[in-house]
Every structure is written in C-alpha cells, then in structure tokens.
C-alpha cells in the first residue's frame, strides 16, 4: 500500500509533501521502501542547490557569485543534478522513516533509482531497524548471594605465590664445588617475614598480610559483580526472544574476533596459529556477538521505561576518567571521540551501566545450597 508523506508546517523544501511511498518487511529487522518523488517537490531543492553553486562559482568574466544561472547550469549541470538527487533521497528517506516511525540502526541502501522531468524521481531502498519485542519482567531477578570474606587458606595461597614471585637465583652447592653455569644456580624463596614486607615497600609482615587480603577482597568483589551481571543478563535473554539486525551482529562479531586475535598475539602465539585458533571459535564468537547486541536492545528498552537519563556531569566525569587513562587533555579526548563518531557510544555505555545497576538493586538474592 502506498501512503502519503506528511506535510510539514515549515516552508523548507525538506518539509513538502514529496509524493508516495510503500514500506514492507523484507527480512527480520529489515524494511524495504519504494519511493516516488513528484517533480514539483524536486524543483525547490534543485533551486536551492543551483543558488549554492552560483554563490561559489567563479567563471571567467564574472566576479565570484555573479555569474548568470544559465551559465552555471551549463558549466555544472551534472554536479547540480547529482547533488539535487542526493538531497532529495536523504530528505524523503528521513520523512518516510518519521512518517512510519521507523528506527534505523544503519544507513539506507539505495538502488533502482530513476529520474525523469515528467515522472519525477523513483527509487528503492532497504534499511535495518530496531527489533520489535514485548518487554517482559525484569525486576526481582535472582542473583547468587556471595561473601567477600577471605579465608585463611586463600590468604595463605596468595602469600605463598608472593614469596614465589620474589624468589632469586643464587649459587647452589654444586657451584660452590666448582660447577659453573646457569644449571649450578637454585631458586631461593624468601622467608615470609618483616624483611620481605619491607622489600615490597610495606612496614612489616602484618601490613603485608593486610595489603594482600585487601587486594584479594577487591578481586573477589569484582568477580562477584561480574557473576551477578552475568546472572541478570542470562535471565533477561531467556525472557526475551527476538531477532536482531544482522549487520549489527556482524559488526560485533568482527570486533570480538579482532579483540580475541590481539589477545592471542600478545600471548606470544604465531600469526598462522592465531588464524587456526580463530577458526575454531567462529561460531562461539558469533553467538556471543548476538547475545551482546540483543542484551543492549533489552537494556535500552528498560532504560526507556524507567526513564534512565544521563546527566551532563556524568558525561564530564566519564570524559575525565578517559583522559586520565589515555594521558591526554579532556578536550583532545572529546575531539578524538567526535572524529570517530564514538561520543554517542559513551552516552549509551553510561546509560546501560545505570540500567544494570537499577536491575541489580531490584534483584533478589538467593543463598547458595550447601
């Protein structure tokens, strides 16, 4: 079915009723559009483009901006035509998306474009859009109860590991007996005492134990926080079954694959081995990417319902933390993010974190069975 585009109250060309359009589902999370733009809707846009070319043109015998429109048409006709159709395409796609309440998650792909003075401009386009799904329950999700207390056994194990890492190679008895070389050395593990603590920059053994225990607790809390978020994420994904845009999954798969490859390379693995290893995990990486994309849509929908907002001060604080991490001026960091089109993702990341904290606060803690 064809529909009429809405007429804007504004007098700008982008606000005119451009013609007819149809929108259909062509794949999960993908819309197919057919658009016809009437000749009278194109004329004001072309006139605006011609005026811009005329203003900037410097033709022989005329001052800049003073050449007659007819000469500009002859000199730059094709460029004017192409720019006009580009603007018409952009404008009509934006109006159609607004009229149909589409929520694109990527660029429109235009094809089958045809123009004539009598029939106007017709073209087809496809675009991936946000998935539609009913938001299920998300409060009261069960998460495991956890204690951050450090057991004597955990502390003892960590201290022994610290002793091992502080060991030195010293001449062995064989070396003293006249057997030189590396093989004649042995590892000497330092005693767990005040001396070791001082070597590590602490006052005494008691201070060392306190320091190690605090670090263990910090690590345990971080691990438990990840476990709780994973429990909520798994439950949200279980409660919401829907398709997600294919290309978003592809892009996320590429990102996860690059990150995995870099970790393997940094671990010392040869490049050819890295490729072999990546091949083993192709499906697993794609599954992880799909889960990630789906979870982001769920969190975004929850954030909308709960009116989760990001304050300016939160953005400033996040920018400051990034500048400290990158050792750059905050203004330079912001400029870099803007240049790469990543500033919007900073806003999204903060909003998602706040939404997850909301879910954690509303979760139900369950005791571990003995």
Number of helices: 12
**What is the top-level CATH class of one domain?**
Alpha Beta
Rg, rounded, reads 32 Å
Structural class: alpha+beta
In CATH, the topology of one domain is named: Alpha-Beta Plaits
CATH architecture type of one domain? 2-Layer Sandwich
Q: List the strand order in the largest sheet.
A: 1-2-3-5-4
Quick one: overall form? elongated
Helicity level: 55-70%
- Overall mean confidence score, pLDDT: 89
Low-confidence stretches: 1-16
What characterizes the major β-sheet?
Answer: 5 strands, antiparallel
Strand content: 5-15%
Q: Can you say what the CATH homologous superfamily of one domain is?
A: Trigger factor ribosome-binding domain
Which series of helices and strands comes N to C?
Answer: EEEHHEEEHEHEHHHHHHHHE
How many β strands by DSSP?
Answer: 9
N-to-C span: 63 Å
Question: How are the elements arranged and paired?
Answer:
Elements: E1 3-4, E2 19-27, E3 30-37, H1 39-56, H2 69-99, E4 109-116, E5 120-128, E6 142-144, H3 152-165, E7 168-171, H4 173-176, E8 185-188, H5 194-199, H6 205-239, H7 246-266, H8 271-280, H9 282-305, H10 312-326, H11 330-339, H12 343-361, E9 364-366
Feature tags:
370 residues, alpha+beta, Alpha-Beta Plaits, 5-stranded antiparallel β-sheet, two-stranded parallel sheet, elongated, disordered N terminus
